[in-house]
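Field reference: sequence -> structure
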Amino acid sequence: APVLAGALSACQEQAKEPEPMTLDTPEKRLSYGIALRMGERMAADGMTMDVDAYALGMRDAFDGTEPRLSEEEITAEMMAFQEKMQAERDGEQAAMSEGNSEAGAAFLAENAQREGVMVTESGLQYEVVEAGAGASPSVDDQVEVHYRGTLIDGTVFDSSYDRGQTVTFGVTQVIAGWTEALQLMKEGATYKLYIPSELAYGAGGAGQIIGPNATLIFEVELVAIVAAD
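Structure field:
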């Protein structure tokens, strides 16, 4: 009898397993697609989700069922989650900032010892690839340049060469390291710049590639000086 009871129990459990859903209607395919995209975004954001509870909340919303949590409870849980996520992001940012600072300082210390690398009072490092023979721009001028920007690991984050088009801007409309370097250059010159983070984008970084406190490397060609109007 115990053996028979066990067998019956196993059969009942198997019978309870739901049949695989067939996405055989536009409504089912749309519903699945929306849920899949939402799930992908949540997973990418580092969210952990109880899928059964999520589905229950969705069903209650569509069925018009009385919410199982009060508005205050829902708000409290959402706020706690947001605070947790923000704390994790802050921790990751701090770790990245510290790592970039240490790596940048080590790179610049070693780079300063290389032959041909000049170091200014501000901490800017540069080497002359082509000296140029024209005039040097002032803070009141605009300049036309070609450039390529990389991280110290060689990752390219921007390049006018790749776009095949020069860029024109005011000498003071760029990061501090560029403003200083441009005034050292002559028309036709090409310099390689090694810019500490405090003369670049600092703790804020820039975009998706330039992290906080990142040291940057630029190859800059001063094509022409465009006098201010």
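Note: Residues 117-226 form a domain with the Chitinase A; domain 3 fold (CATH 3.10.50.40).
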